[in-house]
Amino acid sequence: KQEVTQIPAALSVPEGENLVLNCSFTDSAIYNLQWFRQDPGKGLTSLLLIQSSQREQTSGRLNASLDKSSGRSTLYIAASQPGDSATYLCAVCDNNNDMRFGAGTRLTVKP
Amino acid sequence: ETGVTQTPRHLVMGMTNKKSLKCEQHLGHNAMYWYKQSAKKPLELMFVYNFKEQTENNSVPSRFSPECPNSSHLFLHLHTLQPEDSALYLCASSQGDRVYGYTFGSGTRLTVV
Prior knowledge:
The structure holds 2 protein chains of 2 kinds. Chain A is built from no helices and 11 strands. Chain A is mainly beta. In chain A, strands 2, 4, 5, 9, 10 and 11 form a 6-stranded mixed β-sheet that branches. A 5-stranded antiparallel β-sheet of chain A has the order 1-3-8-7-6, with no helix packed on it. Chain A is globular and about 45 Å long. In chain A, 34% of the residues are buried. Chain B has strands spanning 4-7, 10-13, 18-25, 31-37, 44-50, 53-57, 64-70, 73-79, 87-94, 103-104, 108-112. In chain B, strands 2, 4, 5, 6, 9, 10 and 11 form a 7-stranded mixed β-sheet that branches. In chain B, strands 1-3-8-7 form a 4-stranded antiparallel β-sheet, with no helix packed on it. In chain B, a hairpin with a 6-residue loop joins strand 4 and strand 5. The chains are: A mainly beta, B mainly beta. At the A-B interface, strand 4, strand 5 and strand 9 of A face strand 9 and strand 10 of B.
């Protein structure tokens, strides 16, 4: 059974800092991996989707990488802003169309 | 709005009430999902529907009853819930092969009193 772990559980950084959020998964036979953002009490907003054949995806200040062999993905946020404060969730979809979520990293960017 | 709309946004119900949550997607997807998100726990998959047919029931208690009348609409009927059922209930949709990932709604915050 796929297990998804996100470290750290919480992170606080000053505005302007570059940061990396980590996601690890136990079964490398994945179909794709998706990073989401969740604001308190709200739904999930998709940030980036990486197919199993891809190594990275970029959108604005966000860059997500995927290393299937080591079971890892990272979400890099450049020049962080207070508006980036949210919980970031990693979700892994396997070849049986089963999607597993990590518990998330709660990010606070201080002005 | 993401293309997946959930109503109501907030719901408070007593343990003897019957209520329903609604989800509607305008993306042409053919798979829809119900997730439960409790405080400080990962999202828990509850039900999966592909082309209106339920393909997964993740050992959910019978007090939660899903209904999918067509590929665009999904309901979650609630009756005789417990206080521990209080949570954020999220609906999502995708193409059947999930190649474009999932799209989530804004959720319904349910409080059982």
